Amino acid sequence: YGFSSWDIALLVLWGPIGFLPCFAFMWLLDKRGLRVTVLLTSFLMVLGTGLRCIPVSDLMLRRRLIHGGQMLNGLAGPTVMNAAPFLSTTWFSADERATATAIASMLSYLGGACAFLVGPLIVPAPNGTSPLLAAESGRAHIKDRIEIVLYAEFGVVCLIFSATLAYFPPRPPLPPSVAAASQRLSYRRSFCRLLSNLRFLMIALAYAIPLGVFAGWSGVLDLILTPVHVSQVDAGWIGFWSIVGGCVVGIAMARFADFIRGMLKLILLLLFSGATLSSTWFTLTCLNSITHLPLTTVTLYASCILLGVFLNSSVPIFFELFVETVYPVPEGITCGVVTFLSNMFMGVLLFFLTFYHTELSWFNWCLPGSCLLSLLLILCFRESYDRLYLDVVVSV
């Protein structure tokens, strides 16, 4: 399609740009509930994936349609990222909430893991080293494969929208817990409470900075690993296993948090200690000419996968800790503010990447620095469990 490196970076950048109106989606989730919000989100995804499939011969127009589709898909991001704690509180009891939050939030990451494989396995790499791919017939073959991916994603999104339209109740017949039935703060008072709560701002930064950096880093992982002679297929497998491992560990940690309550801070300290060590290992390995550390496929796989496991698995634990810290602020508003900050950091990094895409070594240093900063913030954070206290005391 004649895409430049700037176009590719912009395709990733539409995700954080889509979070600019996220406060409107937070209001909709708080006032209208899950069904209306999820229906609107699914419809935006249908429009976005549909725009990318319109067959036009004008390449400039096609590029604009693809970018427009990515923008609409980005607008669906706030609900996908923020609705998991709201869903778990609405539908699940106090001893199931963390697990439900983990499953609901990690499944979107699992879809991202599949994307790491779909691209390299279905669409061949136009690396210019193969005469077949350099020929015009090879370019046409690549274009046809891209079309297959776009049409398949459109079909899946249409199926999800149809299922949501057919059956997606906003809430259960009876509240599963005291917290689910309790009155929450208004939209305006919620923002005042969040912005004046220093403990929340501390833990929000501990989440937003490293997760935002990691999301931007993951989006251009194949470009980062190109200088160390790692193919896009290997980069795809690294991204896949890091996310899958994060999903498995995240759900396991959340289940552990449901069994032994009041351990969220300790779990985060362990996860970010591992993330700091893993990111430092990866960065120093890429500088093997200076550090003389062995630069092999095994070391790159191990360091990247461990980093993804530690960071991705922390997401549901963070979400539960946010809600517990600022209760009775609604879950959608709390997580919306945090994910907005995370996408803001991701957007800033990708913005610089669009202009300095030939210099990616600085991106690697952002990872261990952000993980270490988050570890220090978590260490200084004083945890509280206001929502859990209400459920336990009032239920008794």
UniProtKB/TrEMBL annotation:
A GO CC term attached to the entry: lysosomal membrane
Keyword field contains Glycoprotein: yes
First-listed, main subcellular location of the protein, grouped into a coarse class: membrane
Reactions the enzyme catalyzes: pyridoxine(out) + n H(+)(out) = pyridoxine(in) + n H(+)(in)
InterPro entries: FLVCR1-2_SLC49-like, MFS_trans_sf
Subcellular localization(s) per the UniProt record: Lysosome membrane
Function: Mediates H(+)-dependent pyridoxine transport.
Family listed: Belongs to the major facilitator superfamily.
Superkingdom assignment: Eukaryota
Transmembrane segments: 6-29, 36-55, 75-94, 106-123, 148-168, 198-217, 237-254, 266-284, 300-323, 335-356, 362-381
Its membrane topology: Multi-pass membrane protein
Alphabetical keyword list: Glycoprotein, Lysosome, Membrane, Transmembrane, Transmembrane helix, Transport
Annotated protein name in UniProt: Solute carrier family 49 member 4
SUPFAM superfamilies found in the cross-reference section: MFS general substrate transporter
